[in-house]
Amino acid sequence: MSSSFRFLEDIALADIAFEAEGDSLEALFQGATQALLEIMADPMTVAACWQQRSVKKDAAADELLIEWLSEIVYWKDAASVVFREAPLTLSRTGDRWTLEAVLIGAPVDPAAQTLRNDVKGVTRHLYRLEQEGPVWKVRVVVDV
Amino acid sequence: MKLNTGMTVNRISDDVWEIPTTEKSDMLVPARIYASRTLLQTMDEGVFDQVTNVACLPGIRRYALCMPDGHWGYGFPIGGVAAFDVRDGVISPGGVGYDVNCGMRLIRTDLTLADVQPKLERLMTELFRKVPAGVGAAGSVKLSRGDLDAVMVQGARWCVERGYGWHRDLDRIEEGGRISGADPSVVSDQAVTRGIGQLGTLGSGNHYLEVQVASNDRIFDPSTATALGVTGQDQIVVMVHCGSRGFGHQVASDYLKVFGKAMRRHGISVKDPQLACAPFQSTEGQEYFAAMNCAANTAFANRQVITHHVRQAFALVFGRSSEELGMELVYDVAHNIAKVERYAEGELLVHRKGATRAFGPGSMELPPVFRTTGQPVICGGSMETGSYLLVGTDRAVAETFGSTMHGSGRTMSRAQAKKQVRGEQLQQQMRQRGILVKAVSMSGLAEEAGVAYKNISEVVESVEGAGITKKVAELRPIGNIKG
After folding, report:
1. Does B406 qualify as catalytic in the annotation?
2. Which residue, A6, B163, B186, B392, has most beta carbons within 10 Å?
């Protein structure tokens, strides 16, 4: 399973846009998650001493992803943390997708961590999740 | 004239341009862009597309507007202003923004550059220590759920009654720092838990706390400046730019989701999903308005607590009380909000998304102290240039629903800025130019480099040329805190 992401330079002047890809939908979710984590802090500078499990379900994969990314932003503020990683699995039962994930990180510590952008929300501006041949892609703009 | 659009754009005056309703299907009113020719020519394609999309929204009156600092936003352009009939018009969270009541506050002092320069390093260190900034920063004010409910309703008043500031501060805040109609029962538990720990924090991105100098040669209207407490003579002032933090952001996210579903129920279709809206008189519309007012009041409270800490920092460094230092509030004003206001058409819901209210001297809504000057308007430039204090005019009330610019507006993306600028290098260069910057994030600092912003002076000249705002003073930065 492989995924990647890149930041888009030419859209959303005041905010941050990225495009993630994966060779499966689960890989795509992992790539988009990683992109969001990297926007907020350098994960390599964040310890793994806080964690939060999440289980989310939706019939639509694109809705599920935006809900999951929004939950990450929520925990950043609610627990005052940044993130090292967020391993996840995506499965389908009937007509519903189920995401199971663990957010792993640490309380915000500017002295120890390389902090980046404070994300306000995950927007639907130019939001698109689609499959092109064997590759799943999503474009996301976050408000900072 | 070459523009980043294929639409017809007609000149109304040197600083006002109009896109007629024939340029896009379903436009109910024309779109008007306030900008000099030069600024208009540099506006991105999204501005023209988005302002004409706004012109299609139900119940819109007169024009969909964009100010000269306009750029591409979510649904509404940044710099967008639109007014809707309260009876048959809509309310749109996209017309307010994620950061409800993101706004500006200006605090004056009796100190001069000569007083502050020798202690600037210590002052900036103390401000950086006292005002939490950056990703996930937590505030020092511990709130219970009941406290936060009270903050949502009472805004800045809650703070001054608990010793965070002075009662007279409330006379210098838009709406007295407390907008009526806030209802905590329509705010989600998620918004509460997201925001309860952040009162008194700055945030990051383009938010900042800046120590500035008001010099005689940059005072354009001395009598108005003096009336507002800005006396020049290298006077030190402090500007704060921040909003409602995670609480307001979650309110926006929650209701964008609600409105996405509500539109189908109300038979509304929009040209951009980010223009999700609902009839203002609908249950969803009224609940969002009440929740938005909760977030707006929380933002006023946020800037009030920050002011308290700024005063404490100055008192510590200069060995005198903040009262003795003359640290009075000049004004506090929102630039992301929707408000019910009365115009010739009747009661209208005015959305300002990256636009500032700018009532003129004739406005009875203003406290008496501003009825001779007009309402102060505070507009932030980049951290490398300057900011402006202006005042609103009666012409703004007549033409732009009492609205004007809010800042410089960006010219390049954050990713592009980081490619051109290194944060550490920029910090050094600014120090050499006499501006001390303390930042939580060096990459965030690079993103905020002056090269990424329009020339604010050009934007100011444009609104003055259009007669909707008058410049009072330009304020030069000497110290900046960024998240």
Report:
1. yes
2. B392
Distances (CA, A) of B129 to B213, B303, B309, B311, B415: 22, 16, 10, 13, 29
Report the C-alpha gap between B380 and B217 in whole angstroms.
Answer: 19
Q: What is the per-residue burial (b if ≥16 Cβ within 10 Å, else e) of B228-246?
A: bbbbbebbbbbbbbbbbbb
How many domains is chain A partitioned into structurally?
A: 1
Residues of chain A with Cβ-Cβ distance to B72 below 8 Å are 11-13
In chain B, what residues touch A36 (CB-CB under 8 Å)?
Answer: none
Instruction: Report ipTM (2 d.p.).
Output: 0.94
**Tell me: the pLDDT tens digits for B148-187?**
999 999 999 999 999 999 999 999 999 999 999 999 999 9
Residue carrying the six token digits 């391993």: A87
Dist CA B334 CA B242 (whole Å): 10
> Which domain CATH number covers A124?
3.55.10.10
CATH number of B10-411+453-482: 3.90.1860.10
Cα atoms in the 13 Å half-sphere on the side-chain side of B392: 31
What secondary structure does DSSP assign to B217-278, as a single string?
A: GGBS-HHHHHHTT---SSEEEEEEEE--HHHHHHHHHHHHHHHHHHHHHTT---SSGGG--E
Q: What is the pLDDT of residues B118-158, one digit of tens each?
A: 999 999 999 999 999 999 899 999 999 999 999 999 999 99
Give the closest of B135, B253, B414 to A16, CB-based. B414
3-state secondary structure of A21: strand
Domain limits of chain B? 10-411+453-482
Full-model pTM: 0.97
Expressed as residue numbers, the domain containing A131 is 3-143
